Structures are given as C-alpha cells and as structure tokens.
Amino acid sequence: MMLLAQFNENLLAADGLPFAHRPALVLLVVITAGLLLGRLRVAGMSLGPSAVIFVALAAGNIGYEVPASIGSVGLVLFIYCVGLSAGPSFFRAFRKQGQKLAIVGLCIVVVGAGTTWLASRLLGIPGPLSTGIFAGALTSTPGLAAAVEVAPGVGAISVGFSLAYPFGLICVIAFVHLYPRIIGVDLGKLGRDAEARDADNHRIERILVKIRNPAVIGRKLSELSFISDYNCQVSRLLSDHKLVPVPADLVLEEGQSLLVIARRFRLAPVIQLLGEVDERTGMIAMTQDQSMHIVVSDRRIVGKTLYELNLRSQFGVTVTRIMRHDLEFVPRLADRIEYGDMLNVVGEHEDLERFAEYAGHRAHTFDETDLVSLGVGIGAGVALGVVQIGVGSQHMALGLTGGPLLVALILGHLGKLGPIKGHIPRASRLLLTDIGLVLLLADAGVGAGAAIGGVLREYGVMMCLAATAVAILPMIVGALVGVYALRLPIIQLLGGICGGMTSTPGIGALTASTGSEAPVISYAAAYPVALVLMTVLVRVLLALLG
To answer: Can you tell me the distance from the alpha carbon of 293 to that of 339, in angstroms, rounded to the nearest whole number?
Structure first.
C-alpha cells in the first residue's frame, strides 16, 4: 500500500494532473503527439510539425507546463537554421534573374501585413492576436518565432497563429487550383506541353558519328570550336570494335567514328559539321555512365547558368537534377547554380571526379556537421541580437530572432567566414530545424493554452474573417502584379505565389496539377525573400497595433 501511495504521489501533481510536475516528460509527450497528428492527411493535406502547437494549446489549456526557456533555445536553433537555408538565395534573389519573383514575394508579404492592420482596426482584434493571424495565414513559422520573441508570454499570438494556419494552408492550395480555371487556363496542359518540350529538346543523346566532312579531316579535334559552341562532348573513339578514350591530340581522319554526346536539339548541326551517323550507334551501350551527388561551394560556378558553364563540353558531365531549399527539380540551361546546391551529376567516373573538385565538393567535409562552427555561429548571432543600436533618441536590438538570422544569412551566402563554416549537411540541417521548431511551438502553445478559450469566445468569428482575408488578398494582388506589371508566365507566377506564402504544401499541389517541376524554381526564388521579410514585418505590426 505504501508503494502504491508513493507511485500515486509521483504520478499526480497537487492539482491532480498526471505528471504535471515532470515538465520535461510533458514536453516530450506534447511533441510526440503533435508530430503524430501532423502525419495525418485530410484531402491530401497535412499539418506537419506545425501540428505540435495544437497539442500544446490543449495541454496548456488544462494546466500543463514545459521547462522554462526551452522556447528560447528552440527559437534560436530554428531561426539560425532557416537563415543558413535561405542565405545562398536571399541576396541573389535581387539580381536580374530573380528580381521579378522577389517582387512577387515582397508584394504578398507587404499586402498581407497591410490587410492584417486593416482587419485589426475594422474588426477590433487586438494587436498580438492580429499578428499571430498574419503569421498563420501566410503559413510562416519564422514569422511566429519573431512575434513570440518580441512579445514573450503574450499567448494571443500563438492562438491567432494556430487558428489562421489551417486557413492559410487551405487557401493556397485552393488558389493554385481555382485561379487558372477562372482565367480559362488549362494548367495541366501547359505543364505537359512544357515538360514535353523540355524532355524532347533537352534530353541527352549519345550517338556515333562517322567523319565525312572534308573541312574537318586532317584537323585536330581540339581545334574544332563548334564542339564547345554547341555544348557537346566527344568522349570516345571507335577502335577495333571498342570504344576507347579520345587521345588529347587526336587528328581526325575520314571514316573515323566518334561518340558524340549532346542535347537532342544540338545534335543535328554537329552531325552535319562532322559527317554522318554511324549505323553502329548501338555500340555505345559498351560505355556506362555513373552518377554522383555534388555540393557546390566554389565561387567559379556559383551564379552562372548551366549554359555558361558548358559542362558537357568542359567536363563531359551533365547535371540532371538540383536540390535547393529542400526541393528537387530538373534544371534548364538558363538556370543558375547557387551556393550549397546539391547537384545530381551524370558522367564517367573520371569526369565526375574532375568536376567534383572544380565545384568545390569535398565528400568528407560536406557529410559532417561542424559543431564548432554551429556553436560559434549561433553564439555570434545571440551576441549580435543583444547589442543595443541607437536610432535617434530610441534604442533597439535585433533580438534572438534578428541576430541569429542575420549571421546565418551572411554565413549561408558566403559559405565560409574564416574558419567558421556556413554549410550544414541537408539531413543535419533539417533535423536541427525541426527540433528547434517543435521546441518553439511546444513552449508557445503551452504558454497560450490558458487563454485560448476566452479569446475564441470573444473574437472567434472575427478571427476567421480576418484569417480568410489575410490569406486570400495577398495572393490576388500578387497575381495581378505578376500578370500585368511583371508579365510572368502563369506557371512561373503561381510558383512565386507559393513561395511568397511560404507554402510547401501549396507548391506540392501545384507541381501535382501541372505535372511539371517548373514552378519549383520560381518558388525557390520568392521563398527566401518572403521568409526574411516576414520576420521584419511582424515586429512592425506589433509596434503599430500595440
């Protein structure tokens, strides 16, 4: 009996809640339950890690608590990793290639902030609650992080976010499906046509070409400028029924057969300039390409297009896919390489090794997480965040959001600053980002749980109206600006709108509708601008609305 009494004493807190005096255990239960809830799919949609805040609100409402300061740890870790992810693209988004999509992202966030301010005034919704609605309607967890850091302990922010988030999620997906129908565009057909053109024109072909043109006979292969002009490669020579590597000083002779590798739409002129197709083209099966994942860090290729790099001619390799912002897409010749891009490259082993060295890939380095760099970077960000900056008679600080975000953006952009590295392997970065996010959401949700009932009773209907307006109006304005001012193609525009709304489910629905990966590139251009701007405007809204 004494053991049972002791067990009950350990199990129940003074208020009768099981394990209420074990905040660490409560934290783990809230996070686990939230992640399980986030896996549930309804109509093809899921909440992902953001579902943790809903479980946390419920736990907080019945009186549970989590360890003190755990939210600050999660905030710093989450914001720093987000900054590292956005850094390689953020500053380059304002260059010519990405300016239009950056404008779309900027427009969406600014209109969202303006709509929030107006809704707050018209509907009488308090400032913190409105700011949470702003972050939730634009599905921006970094926005929530910035707001919580500026106004700690104000539970209305988390309540507003949790109510508006599903509205934002649903509205983005609905918009990318309904907008094309309203303007009479068959999005699926556009996507299929684009993919068909790209597949037909940009597919890499390997073909044996027999030397017949008198203009090239007797000349060295290295002297033929049209080989590089057409971005193709001559990698093998047919000798004694075997394909062997081409000698560096090969002199072309009539009847020689060379293995030419190029994109389909460039093959015809090259064949004509060299001679004719060899009927023994089937022998190319005797060569076997390999693939390699290469992470880009060398400034010689960062910012250049695949066309400018001329990789097929220079290295004998082809980039088949690019991983950027945790999204993978098939590149086009006009696409620019960014720092930290993971390239899936196809070619022969020796060529892949040469290109990997040129691109700055170091397998051992890029597969390891430098914990010293991580700690120093976060520490520098926190230190920068507490520095008071004088603005007239006022003093301000970047805080736990602004400081780590600024340091991470710079490190992510530069890749390395002295001995401090700005690269974290993708798997490690995703893990750290999610850990930081769920810690932040658990703390914010539990802290706001006690207030949720009263807030919903007083402002529930008004919050729903505001969330709907804040989710829809920015997309409408962004679409109008994109079509009439920026003249963006519809698929590219919708990808930019998803990026401006920071909606990964939205871009997933769009790529599924089009059957094309073209929107992903637009998403990647608009996303970092919207992400960073959100963390700034939530502060402005809190200051304006009080």
So the answer is: 14
Range of the domain at 423: 19-189+391-545
pLDDT tens for the chain, residues 1 to 546:
444 445 455 545 545 677 777 889 999 999 999 999 989 887 777 788 888 989 999 998 888 889 988 988 998 998 898 888 888 777 776 665 578 888 999 999 999 999 999 999 999 999 999 999 999 999 998 999 989 888 876 678 999 999 999 999 899 989 988 898 898 887 777 666 665 555 545 566 778 889 998 888 988 887 888 877 777 777 778 887 777 777 767 888 898 888 887 777 778 888 888 988 887 766 555 455 577 888 888 888 888 888 888 887 788 787 877 887 667 776 777 788 888 888 888 777 888 889 999 998 876 656 678 889 999 999 999 999 888 776 666 667 778 888 898 899 889 888 778 888 887 887 888 899 899 999 999 998 898 887 788 888 889 899 999 999 999 999 999 999 999 999 998 888 998 999 999 887 888 778 777 766 678 778 878 888 898 899 999 999 998 987
Q: Which alpha helices (H) appear in 46-186, and where do they start and end?
A: 52-61, 70-90, 99-123, 127-137, 141-150, 155-182
Number of structural domains the chain divides into: 3
C-alpha 530/C-alpha 504 separation (Å) is 13
| Residue 270 domain flag | yes
Instruction: Report if residue 381 sits inside a domain.
Output: no
Token pair, residue 81, equals: 């990793």
Q: Which H or E element spans position 324?
A: strand 318-324
Please tell me whether residues 525 and 478 are part of one structural domain. Answer: yes
Q: Are 76 and 435 in contact (CB under 8 A)?
A: no
Rounded CA separation 419/151 (Å)? 35
The reply to whether 345 and 410 lie within a common domain is: no
The residue out of 286, 308, 339 marking a domain boundary is: 286
**Does 168 lie in the same domain as 37?**
yes
Distance, in Å, from the CA atom of 359 to the CA atom of 382, rounded to the nearest integer, reads 33
252 and 268 belong to one structural domain? yes
Largest CA distance in the chain: 104
State the first-to-last Cα distance of the chain, in angstroms, to the nearest integer.
56
CB atoms within 10 A of CB 183: 10
Among 286, 314, 339, identify where a domain stops. 286
12 forms beta bridges with 18
71 close to 439: Cβ distance less than 8 angstroms: yes
Looking up tokens 């009494």 gives 5
SS3 label, residue 210: strand
CATH number, residue 302: 3.30.70.1450
Residues 81 and 164 in one domain: yes
H-run or E-run covering 191: helix 187-202
